[in-house]
Amino acid sequence: MPVTKNSVAARRATPTGAAQTLSRIEQQRLHANLTPHFRCTIVANEARSTAMLRVHLEGPPGLLPHGAIEITASLRDDDPHQGEGPRLAGTPTPEEVRAHVWGPWKFSADDRDDTGWTVAPQQLAIGEWTRYGLTPTSPPLWSTSSTEDWHRDYASEPVGLSITARSKDSEWIVPLEVPVTIEGTA
């Protein structure tokens, strides 16, 4: 095949494997540098019957041109395989086990899902904050734990959150551990 000006130009216009790798690395670096920074607090009332989660979007400044970003707050599922394995007759289904919130608090906001695991997405710009109501969880119906034992077991546990942030063509999943402060002890 003869070498023509068009074939040389086409080869020069096609990125090499090294150039593609470098471009991908740079895109990953830029994406990582734009990972949203959140400051979260949870304050429970003295009786621990309700709590308020406050989520503040602090940065980074590189997100400013993006304007508001969409965030979805969810409780983090640290054991996604819970409920799998052999099942005895009369025991809960894997779906029932996964639907149960295995932690101290669940979302009680109007825009939450049926189980209290997550709330509907909303828009936040850097410097803005939002808040969500929380209620204490209860032991599952099939548990032999009393509600008092359940609450005592989780009394000093932080809340594991996962905030999914979306802006333009980017998505970040930010895991957080948020300690619970009791009103009047802060």
Number of strands: 9
Average pLDDT number: 83
Order of helices and strands: HHEEEHEEEHEEE
Uncertain residue segments: none
What percent of residues are in strands?
25-35%
The CATH architecture of the largest domain is Sandwich
In spatial order, strands of the major sheet run: 4-6-2-1-9
Distance between the termini: 78 Å
The number of domains: 2
Question: What's the gyration radius in Å?
Answer: 23 Å
User: Helix- and strand-based class?
Assistant: alpha+beta
Q: Looking at the structure, what is the overall shape? A: elongated
Region (Disordered): 1-20
Give a brief rundown of this model.
With 186 residues, the protein is of the alpha+beta class. It contains four helices and nine strands.
Can you describe this structure?
Helices cover 22% and strands 32% of the residues. The chain is of the alpha+beta class. The protein has a five-stranded mixed β-sheet, with no helix packed on it. Strands 5-3-7-8 form a four-stranded antiparallel β-sheet, with no helix packed on it. It starts with a helix and ends with a strand. Residues 1-20 are annotated as: Disordered.
